[in-house]
Specification:
By secondary structure, this protein is of the alpha/beta class. It is about 30% helix and about 10% strand. The protein is built from 18 helices and 17 strands. Helix 4 runs parallel beside helix 5, helix 11 runs parallel beside helix 12 and helix 12 runs parallel beside helix 13. It is globular and about 85 Å long.
Length: about 475
C-alpha cells in the first residue's frame, strides 16, 4: 500500500504500508520528524521510502527505520540537513537489502558514510551523493573498489574529489615509481597497510592512519599540504571491472583531469551516460579516451571544457556512432567543423552548442539537413547565427520540441518575443541579451509566423514596396 504525503493512521494500514513518500516539491507541512518517529516502529514492510519533504528529519527516525524494516530497497533523504553520519552508518549496517540510496545535498555527511554504504550493501545499484561538500577522494575510492554492482553514481559538485579518488591508468605506475625519490618521506602510525604500500615504498593505512601521517621536509623544500596529498593513486587490477556501471555524473568535479577519465573508462567499459560538465581541466585527450566506449556511449556532457578542440570531437563521432545526447557548450575552441561532424550522428536527439563563438550558419544548415531526429537544440549566444538560418532549422527539424536561442541578436526582430517562454527573474537582457526559449506548440507557431513574414517579403519585392516587419499575424504589407 502506498502513502504519499500522509502517514498511515491505523495498525492495519501501518502493517500494509510498503511505500512512504513525502516530496520536497509539495508545498505545505504534512508531518514532522516526531510524528514519523512514532509511526515507523509499526511499519515493518516498507520497501520504498522518500522523506525529502520532511525537512526536520533526524537520525532518530533513520535509525528507527533501519531497525524496523527488513525489506527496505529504496531510500531518498536528499536535502535533509539534520541527518549526520550516525544515521547513515546505522542504515548501512542494518538495511542490507538496499538497492538505491539518495543523499544529495546533506551538508554534514562525510567520507565514513559513503564508504560504509558501498562496503556494506552488496545489492547497491544506485548511489546519489551530489552536493556533499565534505566528501573527498577517500570515500570515492571505495565506490570503485567495492561497488561492483553499481549501475548509476552521481557525485555532482563534490569539489574535493580529484584524480586520486578514481582508478589510475596502469601506464602511470612506472612514472610514479620513477618519481618516488622526489616525494616527501612519509612515516605512518602503525595500522593496516594497503597493498599499494609495496608499490610506492611506504605504508599508507586506514583513514585514521593517514590522518596521523608525520611529514618531514624534503630536500626540495616542498611540503605535503594535507593527508589527501599523502594518499597514493588508486591502482586496480586489470580484471577489476564494474560491468554494470551505466551512468556516471561528475558535473563540476573541477579537480579531475584526463587521467581520471582514462581510469574510469578502463574499469567501467560499458558506460552509456557520462556527465563531465564543468570539469575545466579536461582536454581533448579525455574525449579520445572516451572513444574506447565505442557503441556503448549514448550521452556525453563536457560543457565548459575550454581545452577541447575539433580533432577530439571528430574522433568521438567516428568511434561512438550511437551518441544521442551531447553538450559541448562553452568550449571556445570548437568551430563549425565540430558541429558538422556532430550533425552526421544518426541517432542525435539532443545537442547543446551554446556560446561557441566560432560557430556560424554553415554548420547549422548542415544540422538542418541531417538532424531529422533532433528534439532539443541549444544555440544560445552563438552570435553569428542569423534569423534566416533559424527559420530553416524550424522548417527542416520537424521533431524539434525545444529550442534555446537566447543572446542571438537576430532574435530581437519584431514579433518573435511573444512565442518565447516567460522571462526568468534572474535574466538581465542588458547583459545577457534577448531571452528566447521556445517549447512545444510555440515552435510550430514561430515557424508559421516566420513563413508568413517570408511570404510578405516576397510579395513586397514583387510589388516594389519597402518591406516592413510586422509583429502580428496579418499579411498586410503596410
Amino acid at each position: 500500500m502506498k502513502f504519499i504525503d500522509f502517514l498511515p493512521t491505523t495498525e492495519d494500514s501501518c502493517e500494509a504500508a510498503e511505500t512512504l513518500e513525502f516530496h520536497a516539491s509539495v508545498r505545505g507541512s504534512f508531518t514532522d520528524d516526531d510524528n514519523l518517529a512514532r509511526i515507523l516502529p509499526y511499519c515493518p514492510n516498507l520497501h520504498t521510502v522518500n522523506l525529502t519533504g520532511i525537512h526536520d528529519l533526524s537520525d532518530r527516525s533513520l535509525v528507527t527505520l533501519a531497525h524496523t524494516t527488513t525489506h527496505l530497497r529504496y531510500i531518498d533523504i536528499s536535502g535533509c540537513q539534520q541527518i549526520t553520519d550516525v544515521g547513515v552508518l546505522e542504515l548501512a549496517s542494518q538495511a542490507n537489502r538496499l538497492e538505491v540510496v539518495k543523499l544529495n545535498g546533506i551538508q554534514g555527511l562525510t567520507d565514513p558514510s559513503i564508504s560504509a554504504l558501498v562496503r556494506s550493501l552488496p545489492r547497491l545499484v544506485e548511489l546519489d551523493a551530489a552536493d556533499l561538500p565534505l566528501l573527498t577522494s577517500y570515500s570515492v575510492r571505495d565506490i570503485w573498489t567495492f561497488g561492483k554492482k553499481l549501475r548509476k553514481v552521481r557525485l555532482c559538485r563534490c569539489t574535493h574529489a580529484d584524480d586520486k579518488g578514481f582508478p589510475s591508468p596502469f601506464d602511470s605506475a612506472l612514472s610514479t615509481l620513477s618519481t618516488e625519490n622526489a616525494r616527501a618521506p612519509v612515516r605512518v602510525v602503525p595500522g593496516k597497510p594497503l597493498l599499494m604500500s609495496a608499490v610506492l615504498g611506504h605504508d599508507i593505512g586506514t583513514l585514521e592512519d593517514v590522518l596521523a601521517v608525520e611529514m618531514t621536509e624534503p630536500t626540495g623544500g616542498n611540503r605535503i599540504s594535507s593527508w589527501l596529498d599523502a594518499m597514493p593513486p588508486l591502482y586496480l587490477p586489470a580484471h577489476h571491472i564494474l560491468e554494470d556501471m551505466r551512468t556516471l555524473d561528475l558535473t563540476q568535479c573541477m579537480k579531475i583531469t584526463d587521467d581520471a577519465v582514462s581510469g574510469i573508462v578502463a574499469h567501467a567499459p560499458r558506460l552509456q551516460h557520462i556527465h563531465l560538465a564543468g570539469c575545466s581541466l579536461l582536454s581533448g585527450s579525455a574525449l579520445v579516451r572516451l572513444c574506447s566506449l565505442a557503441t556503448h556511449l549514448e550521452t556525453l556532457t563536457v560543457s565548459h571544457a575550454e581545452k577541447l578542440t575539433d580533432p577530439a570531437i571528430m574522433d568521438l563521432v567516428r568511434f561512438c556512432p550511437r551518441l544521442a545526447n551531447i553538450d559541448v557548450s562553452y568550449c571556445p575552441l570548437l568551430s563549425d567543423l565540430s558541429v558538422l561532424e556532430l550533425a552526421t550522428l544518426p541517432n542525435l536527439r539532443r545537442l547543446a552548442i551554446a556560446s561557441l563563438p566560432l560557430v556560424t550558419d554553415v554548420s547549422l544548415l548542415s544540422l538542418a539537413e541531417h538532424g531529422d531526429n533532433l528534439t532539443h537544440l541549444q544555440i544560445a549566444h552563438c552570435e553569428h547565427i542569423t534569423l534566416h538560418t533559424i527559420h530553416i532549422l524550424l522548417r527542416r527539424l520537424r521533431a524539434l520540441v525545444y529550442l534555446s536561442a537566447s543572446g542571438i541578436r537576430a532574435t530581437r526582430r519584431t514579433g518573435i518575443k511573444r512565442f518565447s517562454e516567460k522571462l526568468p527573474p534572474h535574466h538581465d537582457s542588458r547583459i545577457d541579451g534577448p531571452y528566447r526559449v521556445f517549447r512545444g506548440d510555440n515552435i510550430a507557431r514561430l515557424r508559421q509566423f516566420l513563413d508568413k513574414e517570408e511570404l510578405r517579403r516576397r510579395e513586397a519585392e514583387e510589388q516594389s514596396i519597402p518591406f516592413r516587419p510586422r509583429g502580428d499575424d496579418s499579411m498586410d504589407l503596410y
